[in-house]
Amino acid sequence: MKSLQGLLDKVTDRSAVIGIYGLGYVGLPLMLRFIEVGFRVIGVDVDEAKVAALREGRSYIEHIPSGALSTALANGFEPTTDFSRTAEADALIICVPTPLNSYREPDLSYVLDTMNAIAPHLRAGQLVSLESTTYPGTTEEELKPRIEARGFKVGEDVFLCFSPEREDPGNPDFITRTIPKVCGGQTSACLKAGLAVYGQVIDRVVSVSSTKAAEMTKLLENIHRAVNIGLVNEMKIIADRMDIDIHEVIRAAATKPFGFVPYYPGPGLGGHCIPIDPFYLTWKARQYGVHTRFIELAGEINSAMPEWVVGKVAEALNDRSKSIKGSRILVLGIAYKKNVDDMRESPAVEMMEMLARRGGVLDYSDPHVPVFPKMREHRFDLTSVALTPQNVAGYDAVLLATNHDAFDYGMLLRYAPLIIDTRGVFLERATNVVKA
Questions:
Q1: Calpha distance 194→207 (Å, rounded)
Q2: Which of 147, 220, 254, 362 is most buried, taking the most CB atoms under 10 A from its CB?
């Protein structure tokens, strides 16, 4: 197969050009890895401001240093908004968002718009790989027809695979190279092409039998977490009613060397994966007459957590003869998880809106998010306040939403009149700490 062998030869001698579509939390680390081993990378994004920043070597993601981008630019990284550059690339890797619409149904507009923009510039001998999390069947049902509508035969002229992203921002134990990569091809030739490309930059590439299997793999990974977090969040509510510290219970249970994996409760799910991905499967499953009751129940529990926490804030203030209305409340951490600047689907922001609607006077402190960003659904004109004893003592309540390592928890415990701890940071019981 001439097209396949030509692609494989270019990949082997690293003369292949890599095209990455979507220069965010997934696309940028992948770009850096391809550059690191000697490939030239064309990065395409529709956000002109992001592309302009990248051209200047300025990072807009905290854990990606600007120095790394400057080095990448010097070694063959070309950021652009021009989709016609697609014709120059040999491997086209799509890393765009897959959110939910207002009805909590899959929104594939970013994927389809990207594929439609790529399609006119396709040529024989290219690999198209989708990394965006989606429901089983997307690659085959949506991408394959768009490629073949241009006159190409998938598996002979153009090669198509699905290889889900597994980035974990802020996790120091794993980097792009060391996280095993799942890959499924539309045909055996497609799989061979995908394994060849990813094998250049990832230590271990795991092949599966189809793009559908690869798509389902990613959903299982995230649904596994969502369901177990839903379980432990429900256990938290039960334990709270019984005046039991669920975090103490989890720590004790985790000493069992078999048959138990610790998951930890919180104020709700955040990030681009766990709150969203389960709904991709529940939506698709309905087409097969399957009602995903277990998954949806976990979703209901997790979605209710911000409101439950706000209820705990109200109770704690009430016990001190105060109400949310008029109380000064400091929210600690507004990123969706600790030690990152990523605010996608952050439950902290949802709780801020609930507290504001009830008349709370809000501030926040987050060393990773110095200015509250412009968001499509949430708007606060706030900047991060400094955590000093004097500042902390002036609030009626401190809501610990995200447990960044940078916070001085000893100082908080000493000076805050009231702390609502949603992350189990404060191990010992204290009169000014309420577990939520």
A1: 9
A2: 147
Quick one: fold of 225-435? Rossmann fold (3.40.50)
Instruction: Please write the tens of the pLDDT for every residue from 258-307.
Output: 999 999 999 998 877 778 888 899 999 999 999 999 899 999 999 999 99
Alpha helices, H only, 13-80 = 27-36, 48-55, 66-74
Catalytic machinery residues: 273
Task: Please tell me the distance from the alpha carbon of residue 266 to that of residue 396, in angstroms, as a whole number.
Answer: 22
What does the block give as tokens for 61? 């993601």
The answer to whether 73 touches 55, Cβ cutoff 8 Å, is yes
- Which class is 2-209 in CATH? alpha beta
Residue 142 Cα distances to 109, 197, 230, 328, angstroms:
11, 22, 32, 50
Cβ-Cβ contacts under 8 Å for 219 (sequence gap 6 or more): 133, 135, 136, 277, 278, 280, 281
| Contact yes or no for 196/181 (Cβ under 8 A) | no
CA 359 to chain centre: 31
Assessment of whether the complete model's pTM goes beyond 0.90: yes
